Amino acid sequence: MFSKLEQLHRRTGKKGVGRYDYLQQLVTEFEDTNSTECKEQVLANLANFAYDPINYEFLRKLNVIDLFLDQLSEENTNFVQFALSGLCNLALDIENKEHILHCGGVRIVAACLSSRDEDTVLSAISTLMFLITSRIETRVRIVIIKNRILIVAEITTPEIVDCIFRLSRSRNTRLRNLATIFLEDYCTTEQVTETREIHSQSVDVANIPLPKN
């Protein structure tokens, strides 16, 4: 259940909520520690705090969005998973969304679609969907899907649509279902049709007979 600022004040008294100071301590701990396990725990905690809108302003002031984005290029799969979960939690808020887009977050998040970790891929698809907005902005592409005007920015590029289409054919039910929702709700019929035709024309190398000596 989301917190309300008034409720936090009632629980913590005149000294304030103390939430910002605690979050700042977490960020400092992440930056100062050399322990991988400790960093993982901090990222997991920050991702959990990102679930509650009461923390959004604090997290922006502490540059946690940038911290999350930086971790997506790490080799440690837990770093990537926790950071992406945090971004997914933050991406529905318009200010957070704009910051992620401004920092090139779409490209960084889309790179996680090729992860071997199921939860990471699910979070990547969800984050991309959350980053799509109905707010009019500059330098973006506007499309109308299911009678909705959507600002898709660079989110539905052919490369990303192709990757999502591949996931929609996955044997993994969770990945297949979420990828299908992405294609149906955030891509035009033309985009999906074109991608499907490209895949239908491709040849499975595994089915090509080897030449005889």
Walk me through this protein's architecture.
Helices cover 61% and strands 4% of the residues. The protein is mostly helical. Strands 1-2 form a two-stranded antiparallel ribbon. Helix 5 (64-71) packs across helix 6, helix 10 packs antiparallel against helix 11 (173-186) and helix 10 (158-167) packs across helix 12 (189-201). The radius of gyration is 20 Å and the shape is elongated. It starts with a helix and ends in a 12-residue tail after the last helix. InterPro entries: ARM-like, ARM-type_fold, ARMC7. This is Armadillo repeat-containing protein 7.
The profile of the biggest β sheet is: 2 strands, antiparallel
Average residue-wise pLDDT? 83
- Let me know the number of strands: 2
Strand portion, in percent? under 5%
Helix-strand makeup class = mainly alpha
Spell out the helices and strands N to C.
HHHHHHHHHEEHHH
Q: Counting H and I runs of at least 4 residues, what is the number of helices?
A: 12
Order of strands in the sheet with most strands: 1-2
